[in-house]
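Appendix C: a fully annotated inverse folding record. The material below is reproduced so that readers can follow the format used throughout the book. The structure is listed first as tokens, followed by the designed sequence.
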């Protein structure tokens, strides 16, 4: 069993809800009350169901964060839709490894920091709203890129991408902020995608089609971890596991 830690304080409630969900819940709850008072039962029931769904959608469970050297943690819940090397990183100069995770409406939508470091830049760009599962959505859709310089000196880009329905990107972090792996940094409302752009020699441990959880699933190891693995093997030590 690997070691874990908490990146954020534990929630005070058994069913924690992300703060951006409060206005949606209040609006749906108010509509439920209005229709109930005017005795339009059918609409009151629909609005009540919508209220419960929105509460569930904005759930924000605590997550144990794996404490493994150079591990890259998934920034989003969902399905891995892309694991590919790229000759040109659209957010950081040079070649890279891109790992994309698509979130449907049933996934937890709170996004988390993939590795410890310092946020050097946050870059927001307007764009289209094509289906986030399409590869072209990575750069053509409205998106918000968070650039992190890791403690090992690598640069990593975490990109929140809007989708056909998801049109509200929330980022609660700021430039210059020191961040920990697994720390909450925002969310995208109602389904979308998060892409990671990692150093080209990052060793992925996921494949397209895999299901991952933000803050808990390890999706790869930064290059310096590979060097540690080689040193460990040379010294007769066991290797670091790629999965949890």
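Designed amino acids, in order:
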């Amino acid at each position: 069993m690997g070691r874990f830690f908490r990146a954020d304080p534990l929630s005070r409630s058994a069913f924690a809800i992300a703060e951006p969900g409060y206005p949606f819940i209040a609006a749906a709850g108010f509509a439920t009350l209005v229709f109930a008072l005017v005795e339009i039962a059918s609409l009151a029931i629909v609005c009540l169901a919508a209220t419960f769904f929105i509460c569930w959608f904005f759930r924000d469970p605590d997550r144990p964060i794996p404490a493994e050297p150079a591990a890259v943690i998934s920034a989003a819940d969902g399905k891995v839709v892309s694991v590919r090397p790229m000759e040109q990183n659209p957010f950081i100069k040079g070649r890279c490894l891109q790992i994309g995770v698509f979130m449907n409406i049933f996934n937890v939508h709170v996004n988390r920091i993939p590795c410890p470091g310092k946020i050097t830049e946050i870059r927001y760009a307007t764009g289209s709203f094509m289906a986030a599962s399409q590869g072209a959505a990575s750069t053509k859709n409205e998106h918000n890129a968070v650039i992190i310089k890791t403690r090992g000196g690598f640069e990593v880009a975490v990109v929140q991408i809007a989708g056909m329905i998801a049109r509200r990107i929330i980022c609660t972090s700021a430039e210059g902020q020191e961040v920990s792996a697994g720390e909450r940094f925002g969310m995208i409302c109602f389904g979308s995608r998060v892409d990671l752009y990692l150093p080209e020699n990052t060793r992925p441990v996921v494949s397209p089609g895999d299901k991952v959880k933000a803050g808990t699933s390890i999706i790869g190891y930064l290059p310096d971890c590979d060097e540690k693995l080689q040193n460990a093997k040379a010294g007769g030590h066991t290797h670091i596991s790629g999965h949890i």
